[in-house]
Structure formats: C-alpha cells, structure tokens
Amino acid sequence: MTPVRVLIVDDDALVRAGLRMILSGADDVRVVGEASDGGEVPAAVAEHRPDVVLMDIRMPGIDGLAATETLRRRPGAPEVLVLTTFDADEYVLRALRAGAAGFLLKDTAPARIRDAVLRVAAGEATLSPSVTRQLITHVTTAPAPDRGHSERRLDQLSTRELDVALAVAQGRTNAEIATQLFMSVATVKAHVSRVLTKLDLNNRVQIALLVHDAGLA
C-alpha cells in the first residue's frame, strides 16, 4: 500500500516535531514536509503533493482558517485536518464550512492521530456521526449563512435523500439511520453519497452544517 503523504503546518517547532515522530512510526503514513505559517501552504503543497494537511489554526501570519479556505478552493486539493485546542478555538466551524475534513485536538492520542489521517485520506470525515451535533452546539456562535440559500440547496434532494440528510444532522450513524428509515445500511450509504454529490460537499459534517443553516436542525 502506498503511504498516505502528510504535510504538517504549525508555527510551533516542537508540535511539528512531535507530530512527525508520531506519524513516522507508521508504515502507512509518510510525513513529506512541514510549514510554519499558512502563507507557506500553497508552495509546500505544490512541492510535496500531500494527501492530507494537518493544519494548525492559530499562527502569527496567515492563520489556518484562511489557509484552509484558499487551499480547498483549488482543484484536486488535499484533505485538511484542523489542529485545535477546541475549547479556545471558536472558529472551527469556519474551517469545516471551508471544506476541512474535521479536527484533531492537540492532545489526541498518537494512535488516533494516525487513524484520523488514514480515514481522511480514504475520504471519510474524522468526526464520528455521534459527535457532530456536539460540535455544532459548541461552535455555532458565528452568524449562519443566508437561510434561504441553504433551503434552496436542500431543495435539490429527493424526499428520501432529505430524510437521510436530516438524520445525518441529528448525529445518527448509518446503522441508526437504516433502522429509523427502514432501509439497508448499503442504501443509506448510497443516499449519503448522492447527497454529497448533489450538494457538492466533502463529508457528513458539511451535510449537518447545511441542514443547520437551513434551520432544520
């Protein structure tokens, strides 16, 4: 298996060294580069071609939020995992809206950091469905985007797809959604994939945020 290529972005050299040490111990992950500021990200991504970027939020120059927004607008952009202290970083929501695949606490256990990197590289969000609602509750302090716009986007969905989207926003797992809506897990997965495609979203977290913005959660 080709190792997942990771770029570490953090202004703290000790944090970068710690993350490199953690990830370098895994055969299926390879740290290909580092950057100390968001302004260095475009050049570092072009040089190292990472699959996943571990992005700190608070940096003295261009912060991780702006860097994530810029990066995720580019075609073929790598996935982004936001590094945060969570309780102090009220702007995590902005990073998720920009297309970050999720977040990691800086004191996350090493094995879970590696697991999160692999999951993101495989196209999954690092937030489990069970914590999606908790995340939204903690970080929705900023004004939500225009509700009408969010409602119009959701109007693209079929009735069944909307049912699945609402269940995702409630933090339910695929198995729980299958039980609730009387369908197979495979059918739920298919609906989730269609919702992501129709709405041009990256992951379940963004589905939940859009449903929230539309006032349906």
TrEMBL record:
The keyword Transcription applies. One of its GO terms (molecular function) is DNA binding. The modification 4-aspartylphosphate is found at D56. Transmembrane segments: none annotated. Residues 150-215 form the HTH luxR-type domain. The keyword DNA-binding applies. Keywords: DNA-binding, Phosphoprotein, Transcription, Transcription regulation. InterPro entries: CheY-like_superfamily, NreC/VraR/RcsB-like_REC, Sig_transdc_resp-reg_C-effctor, Sig_transdc_resp-reg_receiver, Tscrpt_reg_LuxR_C, WalR-like. Residues 5-121 form the Response regulatory domain. This is LuxR family transcriptional regulator. The lineage of its organism: Bacteria, Bacillati, Actinomycetota, Actinomycetes, Micromonosporales.
